[in-house]
Amino acid sequence: MNLRHRRSEMGYWLTERARGRGIATDAVRLLAGWAFGVLRLDRLELMIHPENTASQPVAERCGFTREGFLRSHMLKRNSGERRDSVVYGPFG
Fold this sequence. Notes:
- By secondary structure, this protein is an alpha+beta fold.
- It is built from two helices and four strands, in the order βαβαββ.
- The protein has a four-stranded mixed beta sheet.
- It is globular and about 35 Å long.
- The model has no long low-confidence stretch (mean pLDDT 93).
């Protein structure tokens, strides 16, 4: 989170058992509302792995717009290899 620039990133992950019940969609909507309302952020970004076909529709259901593709954007947690990200930006 960068309050000076009034922007932040958000991520989400659910166990397999919790998926498909709208939990992630509800959580993203609540957190985005808090970030824009209470924190008064101007920008909230979601960085999603290109092959994560479950998280991308969550972002879109919450009104985020796919803005681009970042190559070699992040390090994989366990291997140290680089991975790409799809960027979703704020609604409207």
